[in-house]
Amino acid sequence: MEALDTSVSPPARVAEPGEGISIDELRLAARNHGMPLEALRYDVTPVGLHYLLTHYDIPYVDADTWRLRVDGDVERPLSFGLDDLRSRERVTKRVTLECAGNGRARLAPRPVSQPWMDEAVGTAEWTGTPLAPLLREAGARPSAVDVAFTGADHGVERGVEQTYRRGLPLTEALRDDVLLVYGMNGQPLPPQHGAPLRLLVPGWYGMAQVKWLADVSVLDAPFDGYQNSIAYRLKQEPDDPGDPVTRIRPKALVQPPGFPDFQTRTRIVERGTHVLTGRAWSGWGQITRVEVSVDGGGTWHEADLGLRPDAFEWRSWRWSWDARTPGRIELCVRASDAEGNVQPVDQAWNRQGTANNHVQRVNVVVR
Predict the structure, then answer these.
(1) 134 and 274 share a domain?
(2) Can you list the alpha helix ranges (DSSP code H) found in 4-131?
(3) Structural domain of residue 29, as residue ranges?
(4) 19 and 54 fall within a common domain
(5) CATH number of the domain that 115 lies in?
(6) Do 46 and 39 contact (CB within 8 A), yes or no?
(7) Domain-located, residue 273
(8) Domain count, the chain
């Protein structure tokens, strides 16, 4: 990593009181996109509606000449072409992915970065081959502790020039459900989602799902690259090392009812009974409870859950709302998982604005 003048990419900071979204943040928001919340109706998110975050550029990778290296602290370094990987065991998993920064724009004070609201999520059917057999074939040595995954995307982040690279503990990389993915929703993996190959680590936030994968390197020491040691840390102060962001915290979203006001996205519904629906997910365990509030979190009502899904796939829910009184209300939902984690009404603040799972709030006018 090479340090550059900070004017190229300013240090991470928190917005001043009253400071609005900047042009730089708007530029990020235009390049990246969330899933429109009306797409919560789909069990599997259509490719074009799935959330997308690209740190640098979408690189051009020639699939015909591309090779994946498996090297580092191994007995036998290996190299694979795309056809080699396609000829191996083929697995398709339905997995929900969420960006670690989802909800950042709703924090106060606001960490200055990609200004996500609630929509940085999606569920796809990912097709690929398990990673663990490749690592076993390469023969990770007893000294191995971490695995580093390097993509083809290159840029500058907070003054540091780098190629995107993330590390995982070897025990996580050897999980049976960790995949090297070349297909999405029954089609070849599209360029924006990491073609020709990306990593899938079910249950972890999106930063672990390295796209445009080029190298898998087994390490004999903990990975200390930028995207692990500096980015994606839960911390309060600039010099606080913080704790790493890992698995997705429980979260629920409601498909907004009625129809929207164009500018404010306030929802308008008629008086009467409305069946509210949505999805909930967690990287720690199955969703066991979803609750709905129509008074901003003062009173909670338990929703009915859909069929138990596969591990790390979102779960549907529904609740019948009798909207009798005209006026403005604030609709909220929250989720709990099998490990006892409960989605908080108000999220504890952190400097990078990551792993936010404070409740969604939807303004609704009953008329």
Answers:
(1) no
(2) 23-31, 82-86
(3) 2-231
(4) yes
(5) 3.90.420.10
(6) yes
(7) yes
(8) 2
Q: What is the pTM of this model?
A: 0.96
- What's the pLDDT score for residue 348? 85
Residue 55 tokens read as 């740190």
| DSSP class of 151 | E
For residues 288 and 336, is the Cβ–Cβ distance under 8 A?
Answer: yes
For residue 158, the model assigns a pLDDT of: 87
**The pair of three-digit structure tokens given for residue 204, joined into one six-digit string:** 């972890």
The 8-class DSSP code of residue 75 comes to: S
Residues 258 and 355 in one domain: yes
Ordered strands of the 304-305 beta sheet = 251-254, 272-281, 315-323, 304-305
Token look-up 């079910």 returns: 202
Tell me the C-alpha to C-alpha distance, in Å, between residue 143 and each of 76, 216, 220. 15, 16, 5
CA–CA separation, 9 vs 358, rounded Å? 29
Question: 258 and 206, same structural domain?
Answer: no
The residue among 352, 100, 346 whose CA lies nearest residue 237 is: 352
Nearest to 94 by CA among 60, 166, 38, 44: 44
Q: Which two structure tokens, joined as six digits, stand for 108?
A: 């106060």
Any idea what the Cα angle at residue 71 is, between residues 69 and 74, rounded to 5°?
A: 145
Task: Classify residue 79: in a domain, yes or no.
Answer: yes
Assign 298 a pLDDT band (cuts: 50, 70, 90).
very high
Q: Are residues 269 and 208 in the same domain?
A: no
Residues 165, 307, single domain; the answer is no
- The verdict on whether omega for the bond into residue 133 sits within 30 degrees of 0, i.e. cis, is no
Q: Which two tokens stand for residue 35?
A: 């899933």
Contacts of 202 (CB under 8 A, 6+ apart): 93, 95, 177, 178, 283, 311, 312
Among 313, 79, 274, 83, CA closest to 188: 83
227 shares its domain with 262: no
357's tokens? 């799972």
What CA–CA distance (Å, rounded) separates 32 from 51? 8
CATH code where residue 292 lies: 2.60.40.650
Find out whether 129 and 137 touch, Cβ atoms under 8 Å.
no
Q: Which of 101, 94, 65 is nearest to 82 (CA)?
A: 65
pLDDT digits (tens, 9 = 90+) for 37-62: 999 999 999 999 999 999 999 999 99
243 located within any domain: no
Is residue 272 assigned to a domain?
A: yes
How does residue 5 score in pLDDT terms, banded at 50, 70 and 90?
low
